[in-house]
């Protein structure tokens, strides 16, 4: 089977990186999919659609690009680094308690990246999607990254309500110590 367009080197590199990233993502998220009823599925849908749209837009732009540009390589490396940081943060600090729903499980993570911002997993995901959109900048890819950011900003307060109920005084102390939700100095 042949594709209706020539496969360029940048296209092939990004496609391979996206396949690896998708496999790692499935490995991270799969264990939490079967656990009881979950809230927050709407924002997860936006996250997934945003990622697919940004990936599709970048791949579409790269199918015509013959040479590998340094900006493409830098954005691709940054995307993969953010993805690995997100995976490491989710696995190391949350372990089996990592869940894609809003309802917290396990203990409250307060060390490592969580000592800088309350939601480093969301921060790394937002940065990952932004760098994906920058691999081959298109209006569609950048709009998808923006939609993801809006969904993240909407999801965080809902998740924090669950965290406050689950961890009570511990959560209040953590919020006083770790002031920023997503971006240090901004929000």
Verbal overview:
The relative contact order is 0.16. The protein has helices at 9-33, 41-62, 70-94, 120-135, 139-177. 68% of the residues lie in helices and 0% in strands. The longest helix has 39 residues, at 139-177. Helix 1 runs parallel beside helix 3, helix 2 (41-62) packs across helix 5 and helix 3 packs antiparallel against helix 4.
Outline the fold blueprint.
Elements: H1 9-33, H2 41-62, H3 70-94, H4 120-135, H5 139-177
Number of strands: 0
The CATH class designation is Mainly Alpha
Q: What is the number of independent domains?
A: 1
Mean pLDDT over the full residue set: 81
* Tally of alpha and pi helices: 5
- Major pleated sheet: none
CATH architecture: Up-down Bundle
The coarse overall form would be elongated
Q: Strand portion, in percent?
A: under 5%
Key attributes of the depicted protein:
Four Helix Bundle (Hemerythrin (Met), subunit A), 5 helices, elongated, mainly alpha
Please outline what is shown here.
The protein has helices at residues 9-33, 41-62, 70-94, 120-135, 139-177. The protein is an all-alpha fold and 187 residues long.
